[in-house]
Amino acid sequence: MSKQVPTVPIYGIPFSKMSMDETVSYLTEAIEHKRQTHVITANPIMIMSAVESQDYYKMMRKAELIVPDGAGVVWAANFVGTPVTERVTGFDLLHRLMQEGEKRKWTAYLLGTSQEVIEAAAEKLQLQYPQVRIVGYRDGYFGADQDAEVIEEIRQAAPDLLFVARGAETQEPWIAKYKKQLGVPFIMGVGGSFDIVAGKLKRAPMLFQKLRLEWFYRLLQEPKRLPRMLVLPKFVVKVVRDKENVKKPRSTT
Questions:
Q1: What is the DSSP letter of 200?
Q2: CA nearest 137: which of 120, 119, 152, 124?
Q3: What residues have CB less than 8 Å from 144, skipping those under 6 apart?
Q4: What's the CA gap between 38 and 184, in Å, rounded?
């Protein structure tokens, strides 16, 4: 992670303390200078995966920027006495960068989710941001045997921005594994953002966002997420128990 970024470590993961505006400004400069940046919009579920798996932890540490997406991350940073400025959600960051792209005539590629959702998301984003050329999109249902073909397709399209929406277990590891080959200045995993852009899911109303209950609203829409959500109380208990050690350095070996 760049020296310029002030961070707070949570279980060895360096979370950016920058505000949304500062993050957009930092990323805009990186994109304009073609400095490759893999952004992870991290939540407590990902932190717990990194706590439990050294491989997942090492993969996260390879990202150039990790922003606090989940309300639980903001709470944890505050609880251990080094607060972050605010939540920087992947959904909002996607839109803010598309707005920057309008001014700068950037190009974008969308990868992931189902064919129906990715087509609808590409169409809506193209209408909303006509100056950003969407140079390609494809669904996320491909296996390791098709990785080379997908990478080549993205390399040929040469976008400034690559947004990836695949399963929680595959999204970030896939980006980390292939980012050098992809050669795209900006890569970010966006989880369920395309579902919201396409209109398949609704974003939580402002009241839920303010109360930090976006996760609960999402759960009401997608009950199948319950097993993943059960990690959240475990995370809270762990942070409370480990208060003195949450910020301690952790080895990547």
A1: S
A2: 119
A3: none
A4: 9
Q: How far is CA 63 from CA 40, 148, 179, 226, in A?
A: 7, 21, 10, 28
The torsion of the CA quartet 31, 33, 38, 41, rounded to 10 degrees, works out to -50
pLDDT at 52 over 80: yes
Give the CA distances from residue 124 to residues 19, 121, 198, in Å, rounded to whole numbers and listed in that order. Answer: 27, 5, 7
Q: What is the pLDDT of residue 2?
A: 47
98 pLDDT more than 70: yes
Residue 3 pLDDT > 90: no
From the centroid of its chain, how far is CA 215? 15
Using DSSP's 3-state secondary structure scheme, residue 187 falls into: strand
Range 57-85 average pLDDT: 96
Its pTM stands at: 0.95
